[in-house]
Every structure is written in C-alpha cells, then in structure tokens.
Specification:
Strand content: 5-15%
Helix content: 40-55%
Shape: elongated
Radius of gyration: 17 Å
Low-confidence stretches: 1-7
Distance between the termini: 19 Å
Largest sheet: 2 strands, parallel
Oligomer: single chain
Mean pLDDT: 90
Order of helices and strands: HHEHHEHEHHE
Structural class: mainly alpha
Number of strands: 4
Length: 144
C-alpha cells in the first residue's frame, strides 16, 4: 500500500484486528492471495446476512481486492473485463434496461434484478448494456 493511500486508509478505517472476528475470518476463508471473487463475497452476504456494501468495506479495510465481477466488469485475468459489445440486443432485455436507467447508467443491483426477472445470466445484461452504450454503476460491494 502506498504511503498516501495508507494515511487515507488509516483515517477512513479501523485496523483489521478491530473488525468483527467472525466476518474477518469468513472473508479470509473465502479469499485467496488477497483477492475475493464477487460470487464468494455474495456467498458471505447470504451466510452472514450482512449488506453487500458492508462486506465491501471490510474487504477494503483488510486490503483484499474484489475480483471476478459477476457482471464481467472487472477482475478477470489476464484481461480486466469480459463484457462484449454485440450487434443487437433482444427487445425484452432492451426494454428492461431502458426502464431502469438513470442518466444513461444502470445500477449493479438493477442489472441483477433484470437478469433474475428475465431468467438470463448477469453477463448477458452487461453485454446488452455494452451494446447499448449504457454504463453500469454503483457496485453493490462498493468496488466501483
């Protein structure tokens, strides 16, 4: 961690040993090499019943990176993102996206809701947004 980040980090958070031990241990159990996959973070959310943004804050405090975004937006090695721009978006997906966008942006949680409502994968929603030039924002874990 850089010196400037360290000072900001210290002001923003408590030290990792002051975190809830149960949650800290759970995050450490699911993480590997300082990284926690998005899907594993949501498994922790489900197991512990803590809001996703709190898990994100804890991982940040523990200097653990969230990787393998389920929407394909970040953390996919060796490339950063796996979202692809297609030729066209089917009409039900296009309509669902347009109903939920605000200022040409779709929130992460709304992307998840659309995927669930339409019975499609989360990555399909991201690909649709990419094709329509709509940005996804407001990561539920606070990663973006």
């Amino acid at each position: 961690m850089s010196k400037s980040k360290s000072k900001t980090h210290e002001k923003k958070y408590h030290s990792p040993d002051q975190l809830d031990p149960k949650l800290r241990d759970c995050i450490l159990e699911y993480s590997k090499n300082g990284e926690l996959p998005c899907a594993a973070a949501f498994q922790i959310v489900e197991n512990i019943g803590m809001p996703a943004n709190e898990i994100g804050k804890y991982t940040d405090q523990m200097d653990i990176r969230i990787v393998q975004c389920q929407l394909g937006l970040f953390g996919h090695s060796p490339v950063k993102k796996i979202v692809n721009k297609g030729e066209l978006v089917d009409e039900p997906l296009k309509k669902a996206i347009h109903q939920k966008i605000i200022q040409n942006r779709l929130s992460c949680i709304d992307a998840w809701k659309i995927a669930s409502e339409l019975g499609i994968g989360k990555l399909s929603v991201s690909n649709g947004c990419e094709t329509l030039s709509i940005k996804i924002n407001s990561c539920q874990l606070g990663a973006f």
